[in-house]
Amino acid sequence: EITTFHAAKGLEWPIVHLAGLEQGLVPIGHARTGEALNEELRLFYVALTRAERELVCSWAAQRRFGTRDLRRDRSPYLDTV
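^ thats the sequence. predicted structure below, dont judge the formating
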């Protein structure tokens, strides 16, 4: 199953893979206020806690957006767990 952080609330799976845990995606780039960033952190927590036994987190060091290859930084939220 593939789902969003939003849609995962209240659900659980034995193994959960969280991909794309990069600055600009988690938290999303347009979340700039304290309130928006707190909501992003809450959603990240929801995603983390959907795993019953195993949680796998990943991010890309480089990602292609259209024709541009951009260096990526891992999400700062990974430092909160």
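The longest strand covers residues 51-57.
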